[in-house]
Amino acid sequence: MMQPLSVKDLQPVSSEFLEQKDTVRLARELVGHYLVHWIEGKAVGGKIVETEAYQAPHDPACHAHLNRRTKRTEIMFAKGGHAYIYLCYGIHHLFNIVSGPESYAHAVLIRALEPIWGRDFMDENRKIKSTHNLTNGPGKLTQALGIDRTLNESYLLAQNSPLQLFQPPAPLSADELMVSKRIGIDYAGDAKEWPWRFYEKQSLYVSKRLFGDKSFLRHEAN
DNA sequence: ATAATGATTCGCT
DNA sequence: GCGAATCATTATG
Questions:
Q1: Most exposed among A74, A147, A175, A217, judged by the fewest C-beta atoms under 10 Å?
Q2: pTM
Q3: pLDDT at A4
Q4: A74 nearest nt, CA–C1'
Q5: For strand B, is any atom closer than 7 Å to the CB of A212?
Q6: Kindly report the CA angle at A41 between A40 and A46, in degrees rounded to 5?
Q7: At residue A42, does pLDDT exceed 80?
């Protein structure tokens, strides 16, 4: 059977990949990639299984809607590969990968992860029993990985970045992927219907599935 | 299994 | 002040 996947065997992503202008496509393609937070030389992270695209200027759900520049949104205008991490509901740190060329305020929210490396560290951070609840949500995964706003604005492609992104050994095929509307943006009018959320169909580590997969729900209850 | 609610801080009007 | 790209807990059927 397969050896456990080692970070050493993975290729970092390219700057071209993260600077592509089509951020919806990037969000789709990032599913299956690997995110690592290096903590005292140890890898903590896993496979990205759920993402959402946010794209100024025409996306009302994007913090930089209409290209509004504030202290908070400024980093979204940087070139792809920077981290945009902000505090949500006063409690949760949400991790985004800034994307597109410089001056394009685009980002991909990382919503769920399949835990692979540093499980002990994650368990300790999360203090929760079920492994299915470790990283299946944008606030949960940052807590598990120890990601907070001290890492805001860091550049993931820098030589010794504490946060790194790696390519999948093989790309995910189209039939392994699901598309849905984005979550938690009811205030965004029309845009709340846009199909800009992507997740791995059979993953047990997705935050919220579409209607109708009863067999999964039974599985999840364990 | 679904619904309601409190937590808690920051950005912005 | 208001509301937020969320989550855990509690209550109820």
A1: A175
A2: 0.92
A3: 78
A4: B11
A5: no
A6: 105
A7: yes
Q: Return the closest-CA partner of residue A198 out of A4, A77, A50.
A: A50
pLDDT band, residue A12 (cuts 50/70/90): very high
**Amino acid, single-letter form, for residue A210:** L
The per-residue pLDDT for A189 is 87
pLDDT at position A187: 87
Q: CA angle A6-A129-A41, nearest 5°?
A: 30
Nucleotides in chain C near protein beta carbons (<7 Å): 3-8
Check if the beta carbon of residue A76 is closer than 8 Å to that of residue A105. yes
CA of A11 to C1' of B8 (A): 39
DSSP H/E element including A99: strand A92-99
Question: From CA A63, how far away is CA A65, in angstroms rounded?
Answer: 6
- Give the amino acid at A70: T
Distance set, CA A12 to CA A18, A30, A168, A177, A215 (Å): 11, 12, 9, 22, 36
pLDDT band at residue A1 using 50, 70 and 90 as cut-offs: low
Angle at A138 (CA atoms; ends A71, A173), nearest 5 degrees: 115
pLDDT at A212 over 70: no
- Listed residue (A219, A170, A176) closest to A198, CA to CA: A176
Strand B contact with A88 (CB < 7 A): no
What does the pLDDT average to over A42-52?
96
Mean pLDDT (whole number) for A90-119: 95
